[in-house]
C-alpha cells in the first residue's frame, strides 16, 4: 500500500489528480477486511488533491460494480458503486494521535494515505441492506428454502403451531 502514500511536497498549488484503479489493490483490501464481496467491473477512484496550511482537501469519485450477498436470500446482489465525495484531511497537532486522519508521517514528512481514503469511501458507498432484486422474497423463516426459486408449505402455517401439525397430517394423507 506504500505506493499510495502521496507526499505533500508532490502536490502543486493548482492541485494534483491521482487514480486508484489497480484491481490487485482493491482485491487486497477486500481480503484484508474479510469482506464477502466480488468485483464485477473494475473499481476506480479518481482524486483531486489540494493542499492548504492546515491539511489537504480531497475531492473524488468512486465507480465500479460489485456483488455482495443479498440481505434477504444471501444470493448474489449486484451493486453499482457510484460515489462523489469531498473531505478535508487535517494535519494532526504535534504530539497528539489523530486516528481519524488519513495523513501519515514518515521521518516527519507528511503523506496522504490515498489507499485509506479510497477504502473508507468504498465502505461508505456500500448499501446497508443490499438486495438481489427489489422483489426478493427472501428465505422461508421456517424451512429455509429460497422463496424466489422454490415454494414450501410453511407459509400458510404461520400462527397456531397446532394447526401447522394438522395441516401436515392432511397433506400426508392426501
Ligand atoms: Zn435476494
Ligand atoms: Zn418453508
Provide a quick synopsis of the model:
Pfam families: YceD. This protein has 174 residues and is an alpha+beta fold.
Outline the structure in words.
With 174 residues, the protein is α+β, with helices and mostly antiparallel strands. It has two domains: 2-125, no CATH class; 137-174, no CATH class. Helices cover 20% and strands 36% of the residues. The protein contains three helices and seven strands. It has helices at 23-32, 114-125, 161-173, and strands spanning 5-7, 16-20, 38-52, 55-69, 76-90, 103-106, 109-113. The chain has a four-stranded antiparallel sheet, covered by helices on one side. A hairpin with a 6-residue loop joins strand 4 (55-69) and strand 5. It is elongated, with a radius of gyration of 24 Å. Mean pLDDT is 87; it is low at 170-174. The chain binds zinc ion (2 copies). One zinc ion is lined by residues 140, 142-143, 145, 152, 154.
Features:
36% strand; 4-stranded antiparallel beta sheet; 3-stranded antiparallel beta sheet; 7 strands; YceD; 174 residues; DUF177 domain-containing protein; 2 domains; single chain; 3 helices
In the predicted model, the low-confidence regions spanning at least 5 consecutive residues are 170-174
How far apart the termini lie comes to: 65 Å
Could you tell me the mean pLDDT? 87
The helix/strand class is: alpha+beta
**Percentage of residues in helical conformation:** 10-25%
* Biggest beta sheet summary: 4 strands, antiparallel
What Rg do the Cα atoms give? 24 Å
Q: Total number of helical segments? A: 3
Order of helices and strands: EEHEEEEEHH
Which overall shape is indicated by the principal axes computed on the Cα atoms?
Answer: elongated
Bound molecules: zinc ion
Number of domains: 2
Say how many strands there are.
7
Beta-strand fraction estimate: 35-45%
Strand order of the largest sheet: 2-3-4-5
